[in-house]
Amino acid sequence: MSVEVDDVTRDGDAMDSTGLSGDSESRPSADAILARLSELRAGDAPTHGGHVLSYVYDSGLAELDELAGAAIAAMQPVNGLDPTTFGSVAVLEREVIDFMRDLLGAGPTADAADDQGDREVVGSVTTGGTESCLLAVKTARDLWRLGGGSGTPRLVAPVTVHAAFQKAAHYFGLDLDLVPVDPATGSCEPSAIIGRLGADVALVVISAPSYPFAALDPVEQVAAAAADAGISCHVDACIGGLALPFLPDLPPWDFRVRGVTSISADLHKYGYAPKGASVLLHRGRGRLGAQYFATTRWPGYPVVNPTMLGSRSAGPLAAAWAILHRLGRDGLARLAEDTMASTRELLAVVERIDGLRVIGSPVGPLFAVASDPRADQGRQVDPHHWADELRALGWLVQLQPSLRQGEEILPHTTHLTVTPVTSRILPELSAAMVLAADRVRGIPAVDPLAAMAALGGDPAAVVDGPLPERMAPLIALIGALPAETSEGLLTELLARLANPTRPSADPVLPGQ
After folding, report:
1. Helices 87-101 and 315-352, packing angle to 10 deg
2. Closest by alpha carbon to 506, among 27, 13, 23, 36?
3. Could you please report the per-residue DSSP string of 173-237?
4. Mean pLDDT over residues 71-91, rounded?
5. Which of 46, 233, 315, 488 is a Cys-bridge partner for 226, taking CB atoms 3.0 to 4.6 Å apart?
């Protein structure tokens, strides 16, 4: 039987709905606090079992969860700010970086005979892919300035580059120069990227693979052109960095490639560590130095920060370190093989569904699904109706809106991320994918004008009331509205979710 929040008591007093008000005599017990936390977690999407095909990366190995939890507990009081005080932090980070640079083509067998100067690959463990991407951009911008660049630098990338690079360009004052991709495949021609390079380009970013469509960008060609032009080239392998190394017959995309100057890879994706842990690796200590912030220009302790944060938890680092030691390269390879086998099976399921198609030739354990224009209109399956129906059947997939790029429109799609645990539920998931398609086949895509009319003609109404059970109308609206409008509405929607709905009992004092 579920525990109602208001029924959780201490000495006869019900726990407050926030659990944070009241005097010391009426504070809830530890059991009451944990009971409420369990109640809240019960309303979340399941993080294990394979029913959520985005956001979480379930190895299917309970042993790894227990190991990660124990490692986090051991490092719980440690502050990662100062590895001279907490030497364990430096050891853990050093071993993770050593493992990752070997995995990403910069190990002791890497060819040192090239024209890139300092071959040594070094780096940092960060709190996640976004921080890794931010630091890659900040590093390249600063090096561009040190090299004589003036004015506003450009960041060149395919339009499918992760949104973290849009954030980085916004934060660090770069002009974002996005290159269109083929709407049918999600891929970008090398010449289209190379043609954008110039003296004002601080960084070119390519993905291995891209998140929206799982396309492997043309790393070799673009990196070589960047090297010839003296431009930094970052490979964003946040999602593929611990999966692609085990896939056969891929073109080189890592530090084996001339011209690749940095790579980001997330340990909390296919390294199966808890959030958040990622690595950013650089070719050369000079590049790593440009990543750091250091100051002795204040009366406090000398500040030297490799990442955006000062004080930071050492727990995710410890968990990632423990899991890498437990699995090793062979264990990661086995999990990658299992995941790719499930991915191939799911791709085959989609190909057999009349009215759906896979975008392009996805590389890695993820893919995007769109409506098949080759099917008769009455047989087409809208991917967002399909996603909503899958949700009704107990499976959570990710809806991606359409996007205009110049004169072309990238189609709206549904995104699936596959993990090792997927192999255990393949029959059920495959059947649900087919059933969901059968239920919505022939239903037209949501008309944004109709979605707007349902809101009384005011898109701002989307932020009022609870989140919709069916997301297709909301995502259609996002794809149709001007970006500034949809971004503002979504900001307000998310801000309301995380903020109190009633005035605080405690006044906010001036200066607080």
Report:
1. 30
2. 23
3. T-EEEEEP--TTT----HHHHHTT--TTEEEEEEESS-TTT-----HHHHHHHHHHHT-EEEEE-
4. 95
5. 233
